[in-house]
Amino acid sequence: MDWSSLFRQTNMHTPSFVDRYRQKFEGGPVYPPRIGDATFIILDTETTGLDVKKDYIISYGSIKVKNYAISISSARHYFLKQKKVGREAIKIHQIINVENALSLRDFVKLFLDDIENAIIVGHHIHFDIAMLEKAVRPLGLKKLLNARLDTRKLAIRLEMGKHAGHQFIPARDYGLDALCRRYHIPLDDRHTAAGDAFLTAQLFLKLLKKAKQKGITTMHDLMT
Predict the structure, then answer these.
(1) What backbone torsions phi and psi does residue 29 show, to the nearest 5 degrees?
(2) Residues forming a β-bridge with 47
(3) How confident is the model at residue 28, as a pLDDT?
(4) What is the rounded CA–CA span in Å between residue 217 and residue 119?
(5) How many CB atoms lie within 10 A of CB 104?
(6) CA 28, 194, 124 angle in degrees (round to 5)?
(7) 77: pLDDT confidence band, cut at 50, 70 and 90?
(8) Measuring CA to CA, which residue among 63, 64, 3, 58 is closest to residue 28?
(9) How far is 35 from 45, CA to CA, in rounded Å?
(10) Alpha-carbon span 200 to 208, nearest angstrom
(11) What was the pLDDT predicted at 144?
(12) Element (H, E) at 60
C-alpha cells in the first residue's frame, strides 16, 4: 500500500477525528512483537445485504482482546439511522426503528475512536472492511489503515497448514457457526453485530491458543 498517497488526500474539510486517526499510522501500521502485547479489535457489521455497492450498514458491534483475554468493558454496539430496511434484512437482523440510532458522521467518529490503531479481526473480515470503508469515505478517508486478520483464514491455516488450497475447502466447514461448534462455543445472540463480534472473539481466543501450541507467539508469525 502507498501510505504517502493516502496522507496526501488530507484537506482542510476533513473532520479533525479523521485527521487524528490518520496520524496514528504515519509510516504504516505498527504492532508490538509479542501477540500478548497487541490489541485486537474484533468487529462485525450487520448490513442490508451483501452488495457493497448498493447495501449499507445497519449496525456495528466490537470488542477488544489483549493478553489472550476478552475485555468485556470494551464492548460497543451502534445502530445507524436508516431510510429504509428491506424485508429480508429485517427477517435476519430483527432491526426496526431503533432509538438513539446514529448519523453516519457520529458513527464514523465513534468507530474511528474505537478501532484506534488496533489490529482488526473478523470472520470474512474483508466484507466488513469494504462496508466500513464505504461508510468512512464521504468523510474524507479512502481506506482503513489498520492491520487486519481473518478468523476464517487463520482457522484454515492452523488446521490445514499454511499452504492449504482454500478453493478446495468446503465453505460450510469454516463458517462461523461450524467453527463455533467445532471449538465448543455456544451459538448465542447470533445475527446481531454485538453477538457475532463476541462469538468471533471467543473463536479468536481458541485459535490463538492453538497457534501458541504450534509455537506461534509473535505478531510477525501470526500475520504472515
Answers:
(1) -65, 140
(2) 57
(3) 85
(4) 16
(5) 15
(6) 55
(7) very high
(8) 3
(9) 25
(10) 12
(11) 97
(12) strand 57-66
- Show Cβ contacts of residue 186 under 8 Å, excluding neighbours closer than 6 positions: 180
- At position 200, the amino acid (one-letter code) is T
Q: Report whether 105 contacts 13 (CB < 8 A).
A: no
The beta strands (E) that lie in 67-218 are given as 69-79, 119-122, 148-150
Provide the pLDDT confidence category of residue 189 given band limits of 50, 70 and 90: confident
H helix count then E strand count, the chain: 9, 5
Q: How far is CA 166 from CA 137, 154, 156, 222, in A?
A: 31, 11, 8, 18
Element (H, E) at 42: strand 39-47
What's the CA gap between 75 and 71, in Å, rounded?
7
Cell (9 digits) for 92: 435476519
Q: Which residue has the cell 464492548?
A: 75
Q: How many CA atoms lie less than 13 Å away from 156 in the CB half-sphere?
A: 21
Q: How far from 64 is each of 42, 75, 173, CA to CA, in Å?
A: 6, 7, 26
